[in-house]
Every structure is written in structure tokens, then in C-alpha cells.
Amino acid sequence: MLPANPQLLDSLAAEYVLGTLRDPARRRVARWNHDLAEMQRAVQRWENLLLPLALALPPIEPPFEVWIGIRRRIEFRRSSSTTKGSARDRPWRWAAAAVVLLGLIIALWLGPTRELPPHEVADVTAGNGQLLWRIVVNATQDTLRVRAIAPERHSPREDFELWALPAKSGSPVSLGLMPAQGEVRHRLNANQREALRVAAKIAVSLEPSGGSPVGAPTGPVVHVADLQRSG
Fold first, then answer.
1. Does an H or E element contain 130, and which?
2. How far is residue 146 from each of residues 29, 68, 103, measured CA to CA in Å?
């Protein structure tokens, strides 16, 4: 049953997005997030707050000894855990979540330029406001990242394809296929970079599996979103 206390619901949504919930609680919140609009709104609010921080950070390969340390901690927990966690564990999980969030903020503030690099962002949302995909273009416009948040389903014989829409005249330019889960990176060619430079919006169309065979949308355009520039 969904918690009646709004503060508890919001706390669960925050821990779910941060990834600090234990497995049983995470599965329960995931089920609520799938079925209940109130939990979906709370999760989306925390995703909107935290995802821009994560997406702005360049990926870093951790040192090998870090993986060794993680593995040792996991094995230690498995060997020493004989009872289920209680409410007294929650402050420690929140402390860990706070450390993760603080690390993100410090990394952004103390980066080489002490500011976020210029980038372009577009949020593709459903009619009810649910965030489906987030698109980020890096500062040099040579890489586009698409992260699936809660993408719509489609037939195995179809794919969603992303397009840059010209601000005035011209034809849409394909930016690649949309992921059904996780994140994909598309290396942009000169034509795609120029299309993004003059575009004001992006669009998502439903195409045959593998994408449009003619270099232009052939299926219905199911979403259009503004391309927001910063920096």
C-alpha cells in the first residue's frame, strides 16, 4: 500500500532515484512507480533535480582498487548480515546518499573551468508530463547522449528515431535511434552538428526496426520537444 504520509512517500522516491533502497523496498517502490501516478510524480521530481547533475559529469573509469574495495564490502555484508535491516539503518543510507550528492556538486564546482560546459538539453515527455527520454549534447557538439527514463513501448518490428528539426526551412536530420533502456551515445557527423546548430526543436518518430530507410521520417511523429541551450 502506498504510504499515506507525503513526507515518507517523498523520502522513498528520493532514495529510489539515488539507489540507496534495499532490494525489497526498491522492488516495492518500482511497482508503485509503474502503477501509481502519485509515486510517478514524486520520482520524476527527484529525477529532474538530480539527473542534470549526473548528465553534466564526464564518465570516469574508477581505479582497479576501488572495484576490489567494493567487492570486499559486498562479501562482508553477505557474510555478516543475518537479520533484515531495521529503521535504525535509514540514517546511514541517507548519509551515504548525501555523500554521493555532495560529491556530484563538488565535482561540478571544482571542475577544470569551475562552471558547467555549454550544452544542449531536450526533455521528451508524455502528455501527462512523464519524462520519457533526456537528450544531452556535449560542449563540442560531437557527441549526443540519450538516456531512457520511462520510454514508451513499441512493437519489436519498430524503433523510435530522433530528429533535429530545422528552425526555418530544410528537412529533418536523423540523430539516431532512441534506447528502450539505459543510455546510448551517438557520435555526430558534420551534417548532424550543423542541423543541431540551427535547430530549435527535436522530434521523435516511430519507424521500422533499424530506423527510417529513406533518411526522413516515414512513420508518425509522436513527440516534439524544445532544444534548450545553456552556456
1. none
2. 24, 30, 23
Report the alpha-carbon distance of residue 201 to residue 167 in Å, rounded: 7
- Is the model's pLDDT at 166 over the cut of 70? yes
Residue closest to 202 by CA, chosen among 221, 225, 180: 225
Query: Distance of CA 115 to CAs 55, 91, 138, 199, Å?
Result: 14, 32, 14, 25
Lowest average pLDDT, out of 82-86, 116-120, 150-154, 167-171, goes to 82-86
Kindly report the backbone phi and psi dihedral angles of residue 159, in degrees, each rounded to the nearest multiple of 5, phi listed first. -140, 150
Q: Is the pTM of this model over 0.90?
A: no
* DSSP for 83-127, written as a single string: S---GGGHHHHHHHHHHHHHHHHHHHHTSTTSSPPPEEEEEEE-T
In the block, which residue shows the cell 555532495?
Answer: 102
Inform me whether the pLDDT recorded for 116 exceeds 50. Answer: no
Cα maximum dimension of the chain? 66
Look at residue 211 in the predicted model and tell me its pLDDT.
93
